[in-house]
């Protein structure tokens, strides 16, 4: 297709995601998410299942974020990683993937096994997420790349979902424009707004509006050379 509809970090905010999708034209635009579908939010499981349907029906692209990796890391070492994963919003994901109401009282190993058994399709989807997609002059990746490397494609998988300042403040000589999430834009914009952030040379576009924290869920329409449209779903939270 000639256009991409790129979506920022959803983090379980299914209602905001559904609202944003009303602006997407599937006949002309390929849907792409920069990752972090899960953790925190109102219903991470519903977001995963919606993503699975969109991939199957429209060949939508859902990239891997650090929170997808956090879930997989916890499943690999449920006892050792439990407290950290919970502190990062993992309980919301766990509760939305298992059909039990008292998950807090289940031992980590048993809880992980139940998720493996009951949410096998969802986990298979998560495990199959790519780290980046290159499309014309654009590169879509969750957090960024190592701009010090002679070939950005050699960036470690860890950095692709975790890097912040070295990428955001680095010199981009790749000839590519990077579309990322991961860092809520309120921490990058001088005015503290949740608006989309552009690096000074406009070669990095951050579309993580911090929706799960009361900001906005952004969607941008990209042609082969530029940003054509911006849609934002405000997601105010009760204080």
Automatic annotation (TrEMBL):
<feature type="domain" description="Calcineurin-like phosphoesterase">
    <location>
        <begin position="4"/>
        <end position="192"/>
    </location>
</feature>
<dbReference type="GO" id="GO:0016791">
    <property type="term" value="F:phosphatase activity"/>
</dbReference>
<dbReference type="GO" id="GO:0008803">
    <property type="term" value="F:bis(5'-nucleosyl)-tetraphosphatase (symmetrical) activity"/>
</dbReference>
<dbReference type="GO" id="GO:0005737">
    <property type="term" value="C:cytoplasm"/>
</dbReference>
<protein>
    <submittedName>
        <fullName>Serine/threonine protein phosphatase</fullName>
    </submittedName>
</protein>
<dbReference type="InterPro" id="IPR029052">
    <property type="entry name" value="Metallo-depent_PP-like"/>
</dbReference>
<dbReference type="GO" id="GO:0110154">
    <property type="term" value="P:RNA decapping"/>
</dbReference>
<dbReference type="Pfam" id="PF00149">
    <property type="entry name" value="Metallophos"/>
</dbReference>
<dbReference type="InterPro" id="IPR004843">
    <property type="entry name" value="Calcineurin-like_PHP"/>
</dbReference>
<dbReference type="InterPro" id="IPR050126">
    <property type="entry name" value="Ap4A_hydrolase"/>
</dbReference>
